[in-house]
Amino acid sequence: MTDQLKRAISAAKTAQANQAEATRIASSSAGDQTFDMSESSYKTSHTAIRKARRFAMQGLYEWLVTDRRFDVDGKLGWKDNAPHDIAARTRATNAMHTVHIGYYHEMMRDIPEQIEALDALISQHLDREVDKLDTVEHAILLIGAYELQNRVEIPYKVVLDEAMKLNNHFGATDAHKLINAVLDKMAGELRALEVQADTNANLRTSQKAAAKQPEVSSADSIETAAETESAIVDEPTASNKPRISANKANVKRSSASKASANINDFKASKKSANDTKD
Fold this sequence. Notes:
Elements: H1 3-29, H2 46-65, H3 67-73, H4 83-93, H5 101-113, H6 115-123, H7 135-150, H8 156-170, H9 175-190, H10 192-211, H11 218-234, H12 255-277
Helix pairs in contact: 1-4, 2-3, 2-4, 2-5, 2-7, 6-7, 7-8, 7-9, 8-9, 9-10
């Protein structure tokens, strides 16, 4: 097979793939939403899922301020921005090769469909009405509530952590307090067994750490204190060191003093002998 033929076959495959992608986008715009979570041509890593959440948050924000708001206000004639249209435009105008497309489409389809039930879950842990929430906070809470309820394979701690990352990227400075409080309470309700298991695991870890610390009995403490006190008393100090007096008879003389004494004794004995002869 020649190089020219190989290039022709490769170009044909590329054109076919591009045509299939264009058909899928067109069908999505027309309302035929056939989303596949196992699209092999796109990334499915944790980073790709995180990017899918970001695009979904932006898409839900756009939907909440347009069609959803018009629906709540009764302005049905203004509705012309369906979630699948937002998803189609997003894919047409952004480089999505590093995004988990299947999960992105799932959230853009299922969250609007479950909006009433998700808002009911959220409102149980709010001190205000859902419509009083900031739109960015509302979109983040919708994604968190959806994952806690429907994506049980994602640990609840990951759901909370990803919600905090979305808020850090898009939300207000202090919004994390509200988001974390609501999702934490919701996790205790929707993931009760998982939260309890995690609490028990943390308790066992803390108990093991406490058991590794050496225990000192009261008797050992008393004995140690007594030994310390005895060592302090026995240790010589400037006040209790024995002093040496120069007037004591048992003070030893130096070698020079001994020699001088011997000479004087010799002279005295010689003089005494001379006096005896005379």
